[in-house]
Each structure stands twice: as C-alpha cells, then as structure tokens.
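A further point concerns the way the authors explain their paired sequence and structure data. Nothing conveys this as quickly as seeing an actual entry. An entry of this sort, consisting of the sequence and the corresponding backbone structure tokens, reads as follows:
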Amino acid sequence: MNETVKTIIPAEPISVSVEGMTCASCVRRVEVAAGKVPGVAASSVNFATKKLTVEPTAGFSAKTLAAAVKKIGYEVAPETITLSAHGLKGADDAARLKVVLEAGPTTVSAEVDAQSGAVTIESMGGARQREVLVETARLAGFALKALDAVGRTHAGHEHMHHAGDEASLKRDVVLAAIFTAPLFVLEMGGHLYAPMHRWLMGVIETQTLYYVYFALATVVIFGPGWRFLKSGFPALAHGAPEMNSLVALGVSAAYLYSLVTTFSPGLLPDNARHVYYEAATVIVTLILLGRLLEARASGKTGDAIRKLASLQAKTARVERGGQTLDIAPEELVVGDIIIIRPGERLAVDGEVVEGASYIDESMISGEPVPVEKTVGTHVTGGTINGNGTLKFRATKVGADTMLAQIIALVEQAQGAKLPIQLLVDRVTALFVPVVIGVAVLTFVVWAIFGPQPAYTYALINAVAVLIIACPCAMGLATPTSIMVGTGRAAELGVLFRKGEALQALRSAGVVVVDKTGTVTKGRPELTDLVVADGFQRHEVLRLVAAVESRSEHPIAEAIVRAARVEEPLPNPSPQGGGANLDVRTEVDTVPIETQRVPPVSSPRGGEGGPEGRMRGPGLRDAESLPPHPAAATFSPSGRRTQDADSLSISERPVGAGVFASTITNFQSVTGYGISATIDGHRVHVGADRFMSKLGLSVAPFADTAQKLGDGGKTPLYAAIDGQLAAVIAVADPLKPSSIDAIKALKSMGIEVAMVTGDNALTAKAIARQVGIEKVVAEVLPEGKVQAIHDLRRGGKTLAFVGDGINDAPALAEADIGIAIGTGTDVAIESADVVLVGGDLMGVVHAIDMSRATMRNIRQNLFWAFGYNVALIPVAAGALYPAFGIMLSPMVGAGAMALSSVFVLGNALRLKTTKVSP
C-alpha cells in the first residue's frame, strides 16, 4: 500500500471551531500556535464565533493543525461528513480508501466500513470539502456519494454543537446553584439575621459547620467549576494566562485559605481564621450563569446564517436514465434536469427548459413580488416555486450556487477582523498578566499596610481583583458587533466580502456610480410611441414589432416585449414642422392622449428635420453593446461618432398573437434600419437618415424627437407603405429606487458622481433625472480608474458602484468597491461589498449598517475598557482609605458575568437597526 496519493489543497481559507477559548488572550494563543504550523500562510481567530480560520498552502495538514491547537490546551471541532463508497471489494479496498482519505490535507480522521460502505470523515475543508473528498477518492479509483437523502448543513452542525454547549452550561449552573444555595444561606444568613446566627451556633459547632461548608464547596469547585481549573492552570503553566486562569486563581485562593482555616487553623493568627467557601462557590456559580447568558445571547448572533441555511432544499427531484429520482442536493451535477412542482423549493441554480410559473425570490433578492419564469430564464436555488410546474437544467451546484455563495460571504464577513481589532488584540494580550500582577501587588500592599486582620483583607482584595477583571468583554466587543451587523446587512441584501469595507464605508465621502445596470435597469424598454394622423397605435406597434422580431438586438427585443404585453405607453405629441395642434409638452408624462400629425410623403427630407440631432444613446456602456442598424450615433453637428455593424438576424418563426403575421423581404441596412413586408404592408424602421433615404421628411416630429433625445432616449422612426407613421422611443429606464437612493446619499453628506462609458448626452440626461451634478462620460475602463483618481483628490474616502466587466478595474481601484449582485462574476470578485438585489438603495443600507456597526463597536469598547479601568482599582481597595468601602469578591463575580452579557446585549441591538426606507 505504498502508492502515491493525489491530494487537493483547498483554494479558499479553512475555518474550524475551537473549543475552550474563553477570552481574547486565548485568541492570541491560538493564532500564534496555528501560524507556526507548516503549510499555514496566515491565521485568524474570531472570538465571537469561536472559529479559527487559516489560509492553507502546500504542506498543510489538518492533523498537524489539530495537534498544535491541542498542545496549548484547546480542541478543534472538525465537521463530520458521512458518505457512501460504492464498489468496495472487501477489507483491502476499505483500508486503501481510508489511507487515501486520511492523506488528504484537510482530513483529521477517516473511518470506512467494508461491509456497508459507510464512510465517516472528520474534516476541516469548509463549504467545498465534500466535493474535495469525492474528487480525491475518484482520483484513486473510488466512487463516493452522499449517504443520506438529506445532508446536514454546516450551519446546522454548528447550531447543534452550540446547543450542546448551552445544555452543558445549563446543567452545571443548576448543579452549582443546588450546592451553593445552602452554603450561602448558612454562612451569610447568620451575618444578615442575628437570631439565625445564634440558632446555628447553638445547634452546630463552628468546626462541624466548616466541614459542611467544605463538602458543599468541594462539590461545586471540582464539579461544575472544574472547567475553570482544567484550562486555567495549564495556560498559566505555559506562560499564557487567560480568563480561566484568573477565575482559577481567585477561586483556588479562597478555597485553599479556607482549607487551612478548616484543617490547620494553627497556621494562622487567631484573628485571621476565617473561611471563604461561600465566596468561592458563589463566584463559580455566578460566572457559570454569566457564561450561560453569554452563550444564549451569542447563539442569537448567528441567526442570519441559520436563516440562510434554512433556505436550502432538502431533496431534489431529478430525471436520470428515463427515471425520476429523489436525491440529496449534494448529488446534483451540472446538466441535471430537475422537476419542480408547485410550492417546492429549488435546490440549485439553473435555466428553465420547460413550463412556466412565478417564483418567490424575496428571500434572495428582497423583491416581494413573485417573478415570472419561462423557458430560457434563470432560476435560483433556495427560492420557492408558485403554482406552475417547471423543469430546469442545473447550471450551478454545491458551493457554486448563489445561496451557498451568499452564506459563504456572510460567514467570511462575520469572521473578519477590522483594523480596530488589531489594537484591541494587542491590549488584551497583555491584560491577564497585568491583572495577575495587580492582584499580587494588592495582596502585598494590604498584607503590609492593611488593618488587622491584614491577611484577610489582603486575600479578599486580591481575589476581588482577579475575579472582577473581564477580558471577555474586551474580546467580544468587536466580533459580536461584526457578526450581528453583517447578519442584519445580509437580511437587507448587503454582503460585506471584506471586513475592512465595513469599517471604511462609514467614512465614505464620495460615491461614484456607473450608469447602465446600476442607476438604470440595464435592459431597454419601449417608453414612447407617437403616431401620425391616419394610423392606429396598436396596428403600428404590431407591424413594427413584427419587423423587429427578426432581430436579436436589445432595442428590437424591447419593442417586441412591449407589443407582447400591450402595456399603455407614454405618447408625447410632436410639435413643429407646421403642425398646429393642442398638445402636452412633457415627454415623460403618463398617461398622454394619442396625438396625430398629418401623413407626410415628401420626396425629400427637409433641412429643418432633426437628422443628425436625435441620436441613439447606448443602452449599455458604449464599449460593450452591439449597435442596432439604426443606432449609429452622431454629434450635434451631424458628424458620425460611432459606426454601426450589420444586424444579427434571427430566423426563428414569428410567435402567435400580434406576431401571427406573414413576413417577407426582410432587409437590414447597416447604419440605417430594417425593413420587411408584413401582411402585404411594406414597413421600414430606423433612424432619421433612413427616412430621408426613403424620401420622407421627419420634420413634424422634430421637437418631440429632440425632447426624447434630450431625455436620454433613442428615437426611431417607422414608415408604413411609404408614409411616415410614428416616432418610437426606446430607453434604459431608471431603477425605481435610484432617485430616492441618490437623495438619501446626499442627505448623508455624501457627494455623488456618475462615471460611464456611455455617450455624454445620455449620461447627462440620466444624471439630471436622479439629481447627480458631476458626470464623466464616454470613458473606457482605464478612464474610469483615472476618473476615480480625480474625484478622490480631496482626500475623501471613495466608493464605486458598478456591475459590468468593464467596471472591475474601477471596483478594485476604489477605496470600497460595491458590486451590483445582478452583474458579472468578474465585477463581484473585484468588489468589497455585494448588493444581492441589484437595488441602488442597497448602497444606502450598506452605509447605514457600516455606521451603525462601528458606532456599536465603539460603545462596546468604551464599556469593556471603562468597566475594567474603573472597577479594578475599586476591587483593589482604592476607596477604603477615604470611604471605608471594600468590594466583595462575590459582587465582583456578578459584575464580571454581567459585563460580557451587556456587550452581547448591546451588539444584539443591531438586529433591529432601522435603515433608510
């Protein structure tokens, strides 16, 4: 069995839970230990999630990492994956498969049952680990697949693990309270109620009472309190004390002092013979109670991930080999045909190949209205089908689906460390040793200079210092706010890919937006149709759409879509050219009554026509959209600025309804337009120069066309049977929220600018509509980078929002790159923040959440540091000389327990953060 095993190193960081971390000092110890493991390029620990994240390189071994973490007193909790091996031929194959799997760099251990083929693997591989393991086995000649119909999600595993920790803490709290309560009543009741003290002294001798106290305290300290001792003292021995070390020292000091008083009282002066069993047990009980409250609050910080994970489908119905099978989503492969019945949840992303339905995508995009899905449209895993039945082809499966990527991005953001956290880590790394030093100094000072009994005062104050100090609050201050803040942002459709963006976005002074697909929908629509006298709007639209149905250009598709749904369209009236009509002048006013102009059939186009003035503004950035045959652009002087290519013609049959027409003699004239004979009518659709070429004057539509062009729309003309019939306007409409989003950004004191590759006329028209004053247009991708440099010269933090491939350089160059989630993968990979729903209002929400989260972090840090700075001197006895006030260790334990709970509670307020509507 000395064969060479081929292994796969994960390309993405690996995260694994670490058990036993109790404070920020633990974080530093684990990070340092993990960073020294061969094959680890970088390591980071998130105290809130209790997770270690490493970047693996060649030579990485999960077993080595687990051993390194265990050596310093902690345990990794790898994910357990259950698979089934097919075709095993006895024990030799099972043993060989075990060797293959355990040789994998992310595998901690593997077990293979030769009889059943069940494979159980403990792994650190993260979201893609199942795929990595299956591929590793395949390279060695084995076939693995999911054993259960429903695979356990990673988030579900984490939730079960957290629930187990909480149950253990609850059991320990109850047990500690049962034994602490009688001890506390017997000891403190006598001090608070004199008759009870006299009764006790008359019934039970003092020494006998001490034995009872000793028995009760021993059960508490070495039962529920053992968790503090077993990790606190080893950490102290390794020279890296942490939170448990403080508790262990304080409790042990009180317990051992009481032991001496109980069993060897002669070793102490008469006035120093006191027991503190009740203090030791109350400290343990209160700290355990605090940990339980902390665990419950901490569990709520992960609600966002669990909600997202709950969107995953449990099974998928797939067609394979002529059969319909129900399988686990993990077994789906690209190309599978999946059947979705009414009300079912989609398992993966894909493309509809049969059927039609409406799908609820609100859980992914935030859009409350179900979206129509027909053949050829994209569907997303995790969404819910409506009343129809669909078949779709899987295009993305496993960790590549949108839902899986969203979960991964949220987990990545929640595990991120902000720059501010680096300072906190440096301070907390020194905190515990400093506290121990202060406790020792307190004991010495009180023992030498304190009143009698000096050793009693010295012990009480030293223990109080150890117990009241709370590095936990400092360690939780930042990561818990990040967890809750990024989770709330995810609910709003904002995904922070990088932690630095969460901190930087709060100070953004300039937001630069791309136009197409960012401010606008990125999909042209028919916005206006003005018909001449003697023509019916419906008939004109039918004939024009029939001609355009032969084209695949976005402008043509917009006209065809409008004809299919027959939606009422704005119909601005033409003016000028001698038409004497009572008309309305607002081009965008809806609704507008149909206005007519006399039919025109002049042999030549007039000089006063709008030729050379109404140009076809690009509907996508100029460098990426193929031109319509009629959409060549000219400058206002009439000079051509962009050549048009030939039209791509589709030979698909014309559809039913208004398109059930006979189409013959179809022609495409590059740079002019298209024509065809429809049901015996000769129809021409194109630019003004096309009409001039036909000998038709467009003067009656001059003013209307000018207004359309100035409004950022593309005017085209239609001629039917040799007569000018209509002017048609197509535009890339604004997204519904764009105006409100720009207004909200300005109200935040943020400067907004637009940088686009589209022509200046269109860009300025769109900018006017949304309220943007600064526009940089007609720039290539490198020009966008230069524009960002120019806009940033004032020293302000700049965020760029875009969605296209040509936006990637600008997204990478900006201080914060924000990608529209409906854009390209390249743009998303270059961004720091992703807006899932594609809504520009997401930028406002991202800034709102950044500001709220950073404000919350500052509040937590102020409390955590202020608490320790204020109360440690009080615990040391600083108030005793002036006011005679001393702090009981039991009060210190309660304060310490509540300080962490306060930080968590404050962080949880982010779940209800109100953002701009």
